[in-house]
TrEMBL record:
<dbReference type="InterPro" id="IPR012337">
    <property type="entry name" value="RNaseH-like_sf"/>
</dbReference>
<protein>
    <recommendedName>
        <fullName>HAT C-terminal dimerisation domain-containing protein</fullName>
    </recommendedName>
</protein>
<keyword id="KW-0175">Coiled coil</keyword>
<feature type="coiled-coil region">
    <location>
        <begin position="206"/>
        <end position="240"/>
    </location>
</feature>
<dbReference type="GO" id="GO:0016925">
    <property type="term" value="P:protein sumoylation"/>
</dbReference>
<dbReference type="GO" id="GO:0061665">
    <property type="term" value="F:SUMO ligase activity"/>
</dbReference>
Length: 326
């Protein structure tokens, strides 16, 4: 049980939301085991009084109605936020997709005010029966439940702050990019529909305006979506990052390369190793012949007499006089 606790970590830490959801989900799933562990530890005579009191307090908190209600609410909310977090971490996620997914998640979380989620519904049923997974529940007046509606409103407000609609310039970019989505078009589309929006995108990101406009007219006039003239703007839309996941992957890779026992790497070498790791080909198709020839040409083999040699100067030990006495 202790090993599992070490693996699941802390709730609401600085890590991704998915980690917090896994943590509360494990607590929900292992509720009887946790209660039994705390109960036995609080009655263990081999532990000191302070430790037994601590476990007794944990046991009382675990069996309280307030804790179960808060745990269920956290599970419902974090399950939605966890899925959103994983979606935004995808390399294929575009700015439009991210905006839609955030708005969809906001609507889902807002619905939890009126329609209970799976975890909260199970908790309400358990509270009525005063029994959850075979563990008797009790009302702890010292604990105060999280205000459900207020908590959900706070979550929604924080999500709304991350929408591009809050910034007028970003809002215009979203609206301009959506012009290329046929689902947003009116029933009767003029051949010059969306020209102003496309011009703004081209001017902002220095794209070929004439070529892109020609591609837009082909998109309006024909059924196909595979238009060569729009490749440039389509690649632009896919390139705009919608989260910091890629930066986090870079930092994670840097920590893997530069460790405590490999800390003398220069910034240049770390950058090169990261470049190879991220963009390099797999070993199955990599041909090392040219690199081996270059290595040998510069006399870097271990048995080459012309290899660079390290001049190691013998330093006189500061304890030499002491050693002479001994």
């Amino acid at each position: 049980l202790n090993e599992i606790f070490l693996k699941i970590g802390r709730v609401l830490d600085v890590r991704w939301v998915a980690s917090s959801y896994r943590t509360v989900k494990v607590v929900w799933k292992m509720y009887p085991a946790l209660y039994k562990h705390f109960k036995e530890a609080s009655e263990d005579k081999y532990r000191d009084q302070k430790t037994r009191s601590k476990y007794k307090g944990l046991c009382k908190r675990l069996e309280s109605l307030q804790f179960l209600s808060d745990l269920a609410l956290m599970c419902d909310v974090l399950s939605e936020l966890s899925q959103l977090s994983l979606d935004l971490q995808s390399r294929d996620a575009t700015l439009i997709q991210a905006d839609k997914k955030i708005k969809r998640t906001i609507r889902v979380i807002d619905s939890l005010k009126t329609i209970n989620g799976d975890y909260y519904a199970e908790a309400v049923k358990a509270i009525k029966q005063m029994m959850f997974k075979g563990i008797p529940l009790c009302n702890n007046i010292k604990l105060v439940c999280i205000n459900k509606n207020q908590f959900i409103t706070s979550i929604i407000n924080n999500l709304n702050m991350r929408l591009l609609d809050n910034n007028e310039e970003d809002k215009i970019i979203i609206q301009d990019i959506q012009i290329l989505d046929k689902k947003t078009w009116p029933a009767d589309v003029n051949i010059r529909f969306g020209e102003q929006e496309v011009k703004r995108i081209c001017n902002r990101f220095l794209l070929n305006q004439e070529k892109t406009l020609r591609g837009l007219r082909i998109l309006i006039d024909e059924e196909t979506n595979e238009i060569e003239e729009l490749n440039e703007i389509n690649n632009l839309i896919k390139t705009i990052p919608c989260s910091t996941a890629e930066c986090e992957r870079g930092f994670c890779l840097m920590n893997i390369i530069c460790t405590d026992i490999r800390s003398r790497l220069t910034i240049h070498n770390i950058s090169n190793l990261m470049m190879i790791n991220i963009n390099g080909p797999p070993l199955s198709i990599w041909n090392p012949t040219d690199y081996v020839k270059s290595w040998i040409l510069h006399h870097r083999t271990a048995d080459d007499n012309r290899s660079r040699k390290i001049n190691r100067k013998e330093k006189e030990s500061l304890k030499q006089k002491l050693w002479n006495i001994l």
